[in-house]
Amino acid sequence: MSILPKDSSPYRQHSLCSEPSSGIINPGSGGVLTSPPPPCEAQPLPSAFLVAMPYTYEYPRPALTVDCVIFGLDDQTTLKVMLIRRSLPPFQGQWALPGGFVHLQESLDEAAQRELQEETGMTDVFLEQLYTFGAPGRDPRDRVVSVAYYALVNLAEHPVQAATDASDAAWFPMDALPPLAFDHAEIVQRAIARLKGKVRYEPIGFELLPQKFTLSQLQKLYETILGQLLDKRNFRKKILKMGLLTELDETQANVPHRAARLYQFDEQAYLALRERGFNFEI
Predict the structure, then answer these.
(1) CATH 1.10.10.10 describes domain 215-276
(2) pLDDT per position in the chain (282 positions), as tens?
(3) CATH number of 63-198: 3.40.50.1980, 2.60.120.560, 3.90.79.10, 3.30.43.10?
(4) What is the DSSP string of 24-79?
């Protein structure tokens, strides 16, 4: 059966260069060109794309990139962001988020993991898609659309080492970031806004705190992310009511003050609560 549209021409426009193709579409072949298109500077399309169409539009093709906002907690008191120093233009020598161009054969998630590993050496990081940034002119090289990701990690568990087109990689305090390349300052602000919203409907801290921690450390984490002080009694009452913490028969060691009780996350309860969400009014 022919898949040619009614009243359509048996000639097809080459979709990459907009030149009419001299290849004949044979209805008996399922609408595939049975003779090759004329030579042009564009790369030939895979045969799967050579399907009968009445016409094709010529759209500009933006480049696609991924950028990663990696948050880490330092000594449970300072929220930091991972940055790399660019070794190539544009913005050569300037700090930026880890990221790069998406390869044709990989998914967005795969591209984000690859770029993060290539530029910082970080692996096994759970990345969550954040937002898509596509303002014209955001990249001086070309029309570029970027899909941003973000993650929470424990600094002690993720040493970093610059590689590929990054000449350096380092953690910076969230409140003392250097000037950033491209629109990466906007991406970071979007990520911190998401993080502040996330603490109100999903438990956080599993990725940032040590395995055993105090309630004061957990409260400090929330205060650091939210940028505000919380009432100690109210916070502890609400966080314990969630049932995601296990109280340990241990206290802090080698501290100059009265040792506090240690807790750890109940992983199953943590994952279940994370899955269904909640309303945590702090």
Answers:
(1) yes
(2) 434 334 443 333 333 344 444 444 444 444 444 444 444 444 454 555 455 556 666 788 899 999 999 998 876 678 899 999 999 999 999 999 999 999 999 999 999 999 999 999 999 999 999 999 999 999 999 999 999 999 988 888 888 888 887 999 999 999 899 999 999 999 999 999 999 998 888 888 777 788 899 999 899 989 988 888 999 999 999 999 888 899 999 998 888 888 899 999 998 888 888 788 777 776
(3) 3.90.79.10
(4) EB-GGGTS-BSSPPPP-SSPPPPGGG----S--------EEEEEEEEEEEETTTEE
